[in-house]
Amino acid sequence: MPETERTARPRRLLMCRPRHFDVCYSINPWMHPEKPADRNLAQLQWERLRERYVSLGHAVEVLEPLPGLPDMVFAANGATVLDGKVLGARFRHAERTAEGPAYLSWFVRNGYQQVRWPEFINEGEGDLLCVGRRILAGTGFRTDLRAHAEAQEYFGLPVTSLTLVNPNHYHLDTALAVLSDTEIMYWPEAFTPGTQGVLRELYPDAILATASDAAAFGLNAFSDGRNVLLPQAARGLIAQLEERGFEPIGVDLSELLKAGGGVKCCTLELRP
Ligand code: ARG
Question: Which partner from 33, 60, 99, 253 sits 20 to 30 angstroms from 23, CA to CA?
Answer without folding.
Answer: 60
